[in-house]
């Protein structure tokens, strides 16, 4: 059996270090598609990234820290895409804004799975200063969305909280479903079903928030 090939222990330039970090994140993401979070180990990630375990710990102290970085990456990508769509389409009605949020949320199952981990595992087990840094950076990023939303800042923040709750709630529901339907047959995953139910809830919330926002504005 040929010896395991690993890369040099240290990346020297900033570009090499950024690439090494990205390689680690991609390795963890690939493994997470077939391995549960609880079963996934740093040893597995190091092997997948073709690195010595000691090299892996130069970038991330713990598995929780690694996955928090992965979550941050996915969140920033979603925020950037959503902000771009808001600037491009300039939605003004609840229906138009719902369409933007649905389009920006396509193919976001990895992000929803990571959000489920955030409150249950990640923030409870990373260093407090790292969790605080994550929250500060997230707040900074979310301000971009607030600037481009058609509603007041308080209403927009309420909307984002509802969006977060919907995302993790529906993801947990999907993950809790058994492998068979009521007739005992294997249950087939239907992405369209998720989108339809998510859209139903999101449109109802947006209609109510928009109406409240109008009443508040008229009362001033």
Can you give me a brief rundown of this structure?
The protein is mostly helical. The protein has 9 helices and no strands.
How would you characterize the overall build of this protein?
The protein has two domains: 1-60, Homeodomain-like (Arc Repressor Mutant, subunit A, Orthogonal Bundle); 63-219, Tetracycline Repressor, domain 2 (Orthogonal Bundle), CATH 1.10.357.10. The chain is built from nine helices and no strands. It has helices spanning 14-32, 42-48, 53-56, 63-89, 94-104, 109-125, 128-148, 153-176, 191-219. It is mostly helical and 220 residues long. The termini are far apart. The protein is elongated and about 60 Å long.
Our count of helices gives 9
Computed structural class? mainly alpha
**Number of beta-strand segments:** 0
CATH evolutionary superfamily of the largest domain? Tetracycline Repressor, domain 2
Gap between N and C termini? 76 Å
Percentage of residues assigned to helices: over 70%
Outline: elongated
Q: Low-confidence stretches at least 5 residues in length (pLDDT < 50)?
A: 1-5, 180-186
* Tally of separate domains: 2
CATH architecture of the largest domain: Orthogonal Bundle
Radius of gyration over all CA atoms, rounded? 21 Å
Strand content: under 5%
Summed over residues and divided by their number, the pLDDT gives a mean of 87
Q: Sheet with the most strands?
A: none
CATH topology of the largest domain: Tetracycline Repressor, domain 2
CATH class membership of the largest domain: Mainly Alpha
Order of helices and strands: HHHHHHHHH
């Amino acid at each position: 059996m040929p010896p395991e090939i690993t890369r040099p222990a240290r990346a020297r330039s900033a570009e090499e270090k950024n690439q090494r970090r990205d390689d680690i994140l991609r390795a963890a993401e690939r493994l997470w598609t077939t391995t549960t979070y609880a079963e996934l180990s740093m040893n597995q990630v190091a092997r997948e990234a073709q690195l010595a375990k000691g090299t892996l710990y130069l970038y991330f102290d713990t598995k929780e820290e690694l996955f928090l970085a992965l979550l941050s990456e996915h969140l920033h990508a979603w925020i950037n895409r959503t902000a771009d769509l808001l600037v491009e389409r300039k939605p003004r009605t609840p229906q138009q804004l719902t369409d933007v949020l649905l389009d920006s949320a396509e193919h976001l199952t990895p992000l929803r799975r990571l959000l489920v981990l955030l409150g249950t595992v990640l923030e409870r087990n990373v260093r407090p200063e790292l969790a605080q840094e994550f929250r500060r950076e997230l707040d900074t990023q979310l301000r971009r969305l607030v600037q481009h939303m058609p509603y007041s800042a308080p209403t927009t923040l309420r909307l984002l909280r509802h969006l977060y709750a919907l995302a993790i709630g529906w993801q947990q529901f999907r993950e809790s479903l058994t492998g068979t339907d009521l007739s005992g047959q294997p249950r087939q995953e239907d992405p369209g079903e998720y989108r339809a139910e998510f859209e139903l809830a999101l449109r109802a919330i947006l209609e109510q928030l928009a109406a409240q926002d109008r009443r508040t504005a008229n009362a001033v």
